[in-house]
Amino acid sequence: MVKLTRNSFFSFKFKDRIEITLLIVSFLSVLILSLITIFLFYEGAPAFMEIGTFNLLFGDNWAPFYGRYGAAPLIYGSIMIVVGSLVISIPLGVIAAIFFAEFIPRWLGDLIKPFIELLAAIPSIIFGFFGLAVLSPIISDLFGLALGKTAFTASIVLSIMVVPTIVSISSEVISSVPNDYKRASIALGATHWQTLKNVVLPTAKLGIVASILLAFGRAIGETVAVLMVSGAVAKIPVPFWNYFKPVQTITGSIALDMGEVPFGSTHYHALFGLGIVLFVITFVFNTISDYVMRKAPTAEVQI
Amino acid sequence: MKYQSPKERVLPYLFSVPAIILILASISILLFVGTGGVLAINWEMVSKSVLKGGIFEPIVGTLYLLSGTMAISLPIGVLTAVYLVEYAPKGRTNRIITQAMNNLAGVPSIVFGLFGYSFFCRFLGFGISLLSGWLTLTCMVLPIVIRGSQEAIRMVPKTFREAAEALGASKWRAIRDLVLTTAAPGIATSTILGISRVAGETAAILFTSSVFLMRGLPSTPFDPVMVLTYHIYVLLVTSPSPVLDRVFAMALILLGLVVVLNILAYVVRLYYRKRKRW
Q1: Least Cα separation, residue A92 to chain B (angstroms)
Q2: Chain B residue whose CA is closest to A215
């Protein structure tokens, strides 16, 4: 009797130890995220103090080697390219998603979709190479520009890179609209298109919005491909809507400058300051996207 | 069910246009790298050192980077998934970890690079090294591995666990011997996708792990390493008129690796979905 109790006591202990080990391992994700936050702010905060938050975020002269740290041209460049890419990828992605979910049989979609998912898997350096060697000469010829590396080129490359996010999530969301809704609509005499427009898309709307927000977060964090085709000139184009001018992005200047800045200099801290800006933007967009997705009627779809 | 008015017959064709554009984009990139690469690549280049105009070290260096990263992130990822699914399926702990993981998945890779530089290279003193690269990339792929494994473990029927426990196995024994082996193909899929992500990563290793030129391969984890993505990056970005031969050859190997890994993941998933034994 005693032996039995002791045994079960030990086995309880043993189980406990495993559970605690697993718990500790699991908290690594939390630890990593906290460390990222701490170290970004530890290295980036001096920039906000030395340069001034306003000057860093809204100053319009980025020339770190001359002691000018106004990141507005970079932030503007990032926003410009991301907006440009979304203008292209939202219609492409959403229509493709509707096509896959509504117009073709599942087996055919399963056959074609891997080609689009492949776009998500291709390394960004290869997109950059393609953009540099193929796309930018075409664009410079087409529009009579001296250099094909422009905000427009970067937008196109980026749109191809983020479109799989929109297609795969949106098509999942659209397919997960309950069949009963569609049947009810068709029973009332609506055609396929009317059903799609008035029943399916409104139900899937929030999910589609979430996929677009997620794509935004991905797009603004993209580095190498954008850096290679955007021209890397840290100036707000004149006029500011001119997409045929070279621009520089937040990510691009971090990547280009980080290798050569002296450790602990203002420039070094400024790059971490840019990292904070990036981190905060992506954090906000991913959180909103997450929230919208959970509010959506098709919430069982995992992002 | 699919009632269409005569006017609506054109809709499928209209709606197919974006899908076709995207597929064409995908194929043209494959063709661009494929033809350029096949014309440029030869065995001599692949087997010769970078110092003599070859691309040997970046290829092997990429494999070094991949294997180390997966060796670290796979156990962590799988154990986290086991904990989340089996031990804490809901509740506050689960919410905190899941939230952290979701946020981690959204962090841009260049920010991982900044973090890796300031934490692993500087604070822990690992310097620009293979080890710093492994750890930085682990932070980056962990969410992919965890999510994939979670899904795979969730797919294992509850009856399996009940049967094992009815036979007297402890919870951990049941998980180790039954749940994990059953979920192995799913875990493999997510691991392969993680590897493919690491192989193509440039921004996160830009200043944590790689150098453009060095003599030979790294001999300890504290040495820097040459990798394909970084080598292509430097050749294309910093030299005014790069010799494209080597770039094409490296791009072909990189893209080939990524495509093969993705096809592998796809096949594993399909194969096991078909032959489920329950």
Answers
A1: 5
A2: B106
CB contact under 8 A, B255 and A27: no
Report chain B's terminal Cα–Cα distance, integer Å: 33
Cα angle at B111 between A219 and A85, to 5 degrees? Answer: 10
Q: Which residues contact B257 (CB under 8 A, 6 or more apart)?
A: B62, B196, B199
Q: Write out residues 170-199 of B within 8 Å (CB-CB) of A.
A: 170-172, 193, 196-197, 199
Extents of the domains making up chain B: 41-274
Which residues on neighbouring strands pair with residue A247, listed in sequence order?
A231
The pLDDT tens digits for A53-102 are 888 888 888 888 888 888 999 999 999 999 999 999 999 999 999 999 88
For domain B41-274, give its CATH number from 1.10.3380.10, 1.10.3720.10, 1.10.260.40, 2.20.25.160.
1.10.3720.10
> What is the Cα–Cα distance from A92 to A158, expressed in whole angstroms?
13
Model confidence pLDDT, tens digit, residues A245-282? 999 999 999 999 988 888 888 999 999 999 999 999 99
The token pair at A4 is 């039995």
CA distance readout (Å), A39 to A34, A36, A46 = 9, 5, 12
DSSP, collapsed to helix, strand or coil, labels residue A49 as helix
Q: Which residue has the higher pLDDT, A12 or A81?
A: A81
User: How many angstroms away from the CA of A224 is the closest CA of chain B?
Assistant: 6
Predicted TM-score (pTM) of the model is: 0.91
Distance CA A72, CA A59 (A): 6
Question: Can you name the residues that pair with A194 across neighbouring β-strands?
Answer: none
* B79 vs B102: CA distance, rounded Å: 17
Model ipTM value? 0.91
In sequence order, which residues have a C-beta less than 8 Å from that of residue B176 and are 6 or more positions away?
none
Q: According to the CATH classification, is domain A54-295 in 3.40.630.10?
A: no
Look up residue B102 and give its two tokens: 């979701």
Cα–Cα distances (Å) from B166 to A116, A157, B154, B159, in that order, read 46, 56, 20, 10
**Domain extent listing, chain A:** 54-295
Exposure letters B18-54 (e unless 16+ CB within 10 A, then b) = bbeebbebbeebbebbbebbeebbeeebeeeebeeeb
Q: Which among A102, A101, A77 is positioned nearest to A230, based on CA atoms?
A: A77
Question: What is the nearest CA distance from B186 to chain A, expressed in angstroms?
Answer: 16
| Partner A, chain B 7-26, Cβ-Cβ below 8 Å | 8, 11-12, 15-19, 21-23, 25-26
What pLDDT, in 10s, does the model give residues B198-226? 999 999 998 888 888 777 788 888 899 99
**What average pLDDT does the structure give for chain A?**
87
CB of B64 closer than 8 Å to CB of B217: yes
**A87 — contact with chain B (CB < 8 Å)?**
no
